[in-house]
Design a protein that fits this description.
about 400 residues, globular, 15 strands, Arc Repressor Mutant, subunit A, alpha/beta, 14 helices, Nucleotidyltransferase, domain 5, five-stranded mixed sheet
Length: about 400
């Protein structure tokens, strides 16, 4: 079969279409004059593009906008039923998968998948649930324009490799998934995608320099520097968990001692709480869980603190101080506008925010830290999913991306 040749003018028009689609994705809605200004082209050119995109059902009318003194303009937006992606947010023990449309709205219910990056059946579970969630939402594979996964680890997002995965067969996760899934696939670090979610939809929106911490069994760090997501020269920037907090200390999963993760994470919280319960410390946790230590979770400790349990409050205070000490180093290096904390431990709110601030007061120069707020994320567990979604659509609507289902 001969290869289809696309002429120069046709290529330019397709590039303009994709730029227009991307602008509508970012803006939500826009009039033809607004789009002309965004693209730097004439109003007749945009009119012709809109006519074609309306005919192909990629764009639709969104009603009449507000007037600036003249005739009220007609607004246009992306056809939300046309473009979908599948996003997956993978934690240390559980993954969440959901379908999103081009208005960044979740379609249907999310799936919870019991897996982790060292699961020998990881690829099979991801593929199975990818097709399952598409089917459950009455979509076909032709409606899905991208599949993105955020996960812990040292990740080369350019090639889709997670070097933290022990099973070498699964390290190049993108290549493994491409054997079973034909759409565009993107893999990145979880904390980085959560920071991107904050930049687009959360407390980092409109800000230039932001630190975003994912506080869970480990500590992930996403950085926004000069308004852009920062990954470092090899893509591995943000390994907050393995900043050395003290000489000696507990052995970390990385093989070294004294890492922040061993003092300021859910892992260290559970270690110290269970140790105290075994030693019959005065606490409701001892009364209820002395004979079932494995049943204690971070959420249970936080609930005990809310009920006034002194031992639980003390343990949360300890990990808050440890995180604050680690953050003090970042503050003095990066001088951010805001620090945003998300993840399961962030739900402890004042029980961790107060010691974090105390640590910053102790370890930071006052002139640097005094005007930097430390706030809890409002996106909760959706930060990563939204970050992946935005990253996928940014790529899908980019000029150089080959879109299998759009514009031929």
């Amino acid at each position: 079969m001969p290869r289809m040749f696309i002429s120069g003018p046709e290529q330019n028009k397709n590039r303009l279409k994709k730029r227009l689609l991307h602008q509508l994705y970012i803006a939500g809605q826009a009039s033809i004059p607004q789009m002309a200004r965004m693209l730097g082209v004439s109003i007749p050119t945009v009119k012709n593009l809109i006519v074609e995109l309306l005919e192909s059902d990629e764009v639709k009318s969104a009603g009449i906008g507000e007037s600036n003194g003249g005739r009220k303009p007609e607004l246009y937006e992306l056809q939300s039923g046309r473009f979908h992606v599948v996003a997956c947010d993978m934690g240390r023990y559980m993954a969440t998968m959901a379908v999103y449309n081009c208005r960044n709205q979740q379609v249907g219910n999310a799936l919870k998948i019991r897996t982790n990056y060292d699961d020998p059946d990881l690829i099979e579970k991801l593929v199975e649930n990818y097709y399952r969630i598409i089917k459950e939402n009455n979509l076909g594979v032709q409606h899905i324009y991208g599949f993105g996964i955020d996960m812990p680890g040292l990740i080369d997002s350019k090639h889709g490799i997670n070097y933290t995965i022990k099973n070498r067969r699964n390290q190049n996760i993108r290549k493994a998934l491409e054997k079973h899934i034909s759409t565009y696939i993107y893999i990145d670090n979880d904390a980085r995608m959560q920071a991107f979610g904050e930049l687009r939809f959360g407390k980092a929106k409109g800000k230039k320099d932001v630190i975003r911490v994912h506080w869970s069994w480990g500590l992930g760090l996403g950085m926004i520097l000069d308004g852009k997501l920062y990954s470092g020269s090899t893509g591995f920037a943000g390994e907050l968990s393995h900043i050395k907090l003290e000489d000696g200390g507990e052995l970390c999963i990385c093989g070294k001692r004294g890492c922040l993760e061993t003092e300021g994470s859910a892992t260290s919280l559970m270690r110290e709480v269970r140790k105290g319960v075994m030693q019959n410390v005065v606490s409701v946790l001892t009364t209820r869980y002395k004979d079932n230590l494995d049943a204690i979770t971070p959420e249970i400790v936080i609930d005990a603190a809310r009920a006034g349990d002194e031992f639980a409050i003390l343990q949360l205070n300890h990990i808050g101080m440890a995180l604050g000490k680690g953050l003090s180093i970042l503050i003095q290096l990066l001088n951010p506008e805001i620090i945003i904390i998300g993840g399961p431990l962030s739900s402890a709110c004042q029980f961790v925010l107060t010691p974090i601030q105390q640590a910053l007061n102790r370890y930071c120069l006052e002139k640097i830290s005094q005007n930097i707020p430390v706030e809890i994320s409002e996106l909760d567990e959706n930060a990563g999913l939204l970050g992946v979604t935005a990253c996928l659509f940014d790529t899908i609507f980019s000029e150089n991306h080959t879109m299998k289902h759009i514009m031929g």
